[in-house]
Amino acid sequence: MFIRSILYVQRTYVVSFCLWIALSTVIPQLLTKYGCESDIKARNGRTSTVLPSSASMVQNSTIYFIIAHPDDEVMFFSPSVIEFSKECHNNKVKLLCFSKGDADSDIMGNIRMRELYESARILGISQNNVVLIDEFKDGLNENWDTRLIAEILKSKINDRASERTVLVTFDQDGVSGHPNHKALYYGVLNYIKLVGGRSHDTRVLILQSLNFLEKYSSTFLTNVELFVENISRLIFSSFLNVKINISFFNSNYSTQVLKIYSDLNMLSVSYAAMAYGHYSQMVWFRYGWLLLSRYLTYNHLIEI
After folding, report:
1. What DSSP element (H or E) covers 291?
2. Nearest to 293 by CA among 132, 159, 135, 175
3. Which family, according to UniProt (predicted)?
4. Spatial contact of 280 and 111, defined as CB atoms under 8 Å apart
């Protein structure tokens, strides 16, 4: 019975993953090649995998991914990092990492610092656009000063009036409940207050935290959303002028949301950035994360 259950889970996972490849990669490429809608071509070819309307796009901007530890950029934000880095969006993407991942030791912190640069390179970000801020110690019991975070952000972020700026970080739950992640959310809020409020050219996007089942649903829930999105655009939007939106998130925000889906190419880059870039972190349970995490195939960003 136990072996049968294991085999059933394996088959279900493989079927779901193959379906995800079809929905995220094969079908969009076929639509790009044979479809007649310019909207479909614009959003599903090599240029983009963002499914909501183009009004939600982030383009012609300097984007700061504000992370707590080396590997956060892959484990949680890789779909967004890769998407926003695409040439068609004309963005400049930067990483601001607030620790070197020295929870275990300073030696490991130095290793992880070098790995961050390698991971960023794989994701398409040059070392010049990676800023490692060695002001805070990594740790579940470390309480970071959110006012100091705000001061550091003010010194690192170019807030010229002529430049569109986008800040991307964790939400108040920090994805995993990690206090370092949550501190960045409140640090960004303090930064906005520190600079006298947000200008019309500054946007703040936070990554929606998932509950346990959503977080480790792999491609299952993403498949449902992709299927409904494709049906909505192909049938309802084209012929009935009706749009359907489905999400498994219970969002407390009524503002604009941006849903970013990885395709097979993007997922391959994420795997490389984690498994090769952050080699020291590839202990046994990380492979489970790579197989099951929904954050590698989908980001739900909320503008606040």
Report:
1. helix 284-292
2. 175
3. Belongs to the PIGL family.
4. yes
d(CA 79, CA 30): 21
Cα 302 from Cα 249, distance rounded (Å) = 11
Question: Coil, strand, or helix at residue 101?
Answer: coil
Whether 174 contacts 76, CB under 8 Å: no
pTM of the predicted model as reported, rounded to 2 decimal places: 0.87
The residues spanned by each domain of the chain are 53-303
Average pLDDT for the chain: 85
**10 Å Cβ neighbour count for 157?**
19
Structure tokens at 210: 């998932």
Residue predicted with more confidence, 45 or 176: 176
Single out the residue of 274, 289, 222, 268 nearest to residue 22, CA to CA.
222
pLDDT at 136 over 50: yes
Which one of 3.40.50.300, 3.40.50.10320, 1.10.10.10, 3.40.50.2300 gives the CATH number of domain 53-303?
A: 3.40.50.10320
Range scoring the smallest mean pLDDT among 156-160, 228-232, 247-251: 247-251
Q: What are phi and psi of 173, to 5 degrees?
A: -95, -10
Residues 267 and 233 sit within 8 Å (Cβ to Cβ): no
- Residue 170: what pLDDT? 98
DSSP-H helix ranges across the chain: 2-21, 27-34, 38-44, 72-75, 78-84, 106-123, 146-156, 174-177, 179-194, 212-215, 220-231, 264-272, 284-292
Q: What is the mean pLDDT of residues 119-145?
A: 94
